[in-house]
Amino acid sequence: MTLDNISCQKSAGGWHKRYRHRSEVLGCDMVFAVYLPPQAEQGGKLPVLYWLSGLTCTDENFMQKAGAHKLAAELGLIIVAPDTSPRGADVPGDPDGAWDFGLGAGFYLNATQQPWAQHYRMHDYVVDELPALVEAHFPASDRRAISGHSMGGHGALVCALRNPGRYSSVSAFSPISNPMDCPWGQKAFSRFLGEERSRWREWDASVLLSEAKAPLALLVDQGDRDDFLENQLKPEALVQAAKAAGHDLELRMQPGYDHSYYFIASFIDDHLRYHAKALV
Amino acid sequence: MTLDNISCQKSAGGWHKRYRHRSEVLGCDMVFAVYLPPQAEQGGKLPVLYWLSGLTCTDENFMQKAGAHKLAAELGLIIVAPDTSPRGADVPGDPDGAWDFGLGAGFYLNATQQPWAQHYRMHDYVVDELPALVEAHFPASDRRAISGHSMGGHGALVCALRNPGRYSSVSAFSPISNPMDCPWGQKAFSRFLGEERSRWREWDASVLLSEAKAPLALLVDQGDRDDFLENQLKPEALVQAAKAAGHDLELRMQPGYDHSYYFIASFIDDHLRYHAKALV
Q1: CATH number of the domain bearing residue A120
Q2: What's this model's pTM, rounded to 2 decimal places?
Q3: PANTHER family recorded for this chain (chains A, B) (predicted)?
């Protein structure tokens, strides 16, 4: 598989690079971004944090707005940011042109329903195809962590919960914690997975956490002035699931913060240190 | 004068707020952003760094991409980011719709030629009207620093050089150092100021520096892989002027860096500390 480099910018002593490649899993061309800390030029292999962004985002939002490069450079952490859905002229989007489903809103699952099933396989892309590419083309080890925001927080939790042992650590900002029970999740799941709700359970972080056998540690940050907190994000479902199944969830309600990247930038360093501790 | 708050987001323990107000100087409504560190709620007055952005920017670019809030919160520094030109339906832009003149490209000067002279008075807005507003409505002292990027680096240098004593310190990233001698500057100056080149000298940082009597310290960062370095930015003119007139210019050529906000984010902390040292 080949990667086409489309940009290359020095940042905090390392390099922010963007690549385009053909995704076999998604059946389309994809763009992702990678931050390579200065240690990437020293010969060894470095651990990788995969960052999953939220609704409407691309690979660019986190790299431009999170302010994560400085500490990643200090910690020797590679960061990889994929796009949030398959893309391209033949990839169907929301039938009504809405922003909360389809293009920019792939929900990091494998769709089973038409017309989505052909391209919308973001889970397999994020968990398998992209790491294989990253580990083949960059000085990246197989030590992986995963995190994300909102839809991407849901994605990070679900990827970690469905694939025990694949990630050394998982965290999330403002995740859609119980998509079966919120409008964003119900819209996406009913289309991608069909109306049979029992099929939704394997893509819902709170359900998966309540059933997970291996003990799991989770760090979740949530702003208490987040406009989506009550109707869409519902972290209390995650808290109940963790409690019932005996998992170690640290949910930090951050007073005054909203759903924006200003919130992420305020606490990303805590998450980077959390992952670095598990990865090295 | 009244300020209308249009957004308010917690960031790094402080607040990022945006305001709309009527500018008497510019004859239009303007939006600016302010970062208030946590110390702003403690009763005293804090020093202010004015940040001037480059071509095509608004108040948002620096706040979203520079990663400056964390250290500003630590240092107790207010940051104010104005827009880069007058705005509105009756404000003329580039006749050909180009991005390097007019709307988003006011060059921080006072225009003398029609049809620009009515609205394009960004120097007076940045140096006088905006600080008066800021100092009246926020816990801001009259201790001021100024910095900026590209067109805004030119603006920061020129504002400081034309107003000795008004700023405790000045710095710039990738400034248009000698606008009389580059295409961006010549296009803007010939329209805003007319074809008589002798009138341009009072808005050219290198000319002003060569003639400045009071000793001035300047910190300038410049990436050596900046696509605009050779034809537009020309920092060597600034170096020569500083040398000839005996000013203390520290020009740091940063290897590998380009003209983007990744460059600014990589070194903004050095500038914040530089200004904080002069301000407190």
Answers
A1: 3.40.50.1820
A2: 0.97
A3: S-FORMYLGLUTATHIONE HYDROLASE, S-FORMYLGLUTATHIONE HYDROLASE YEIG
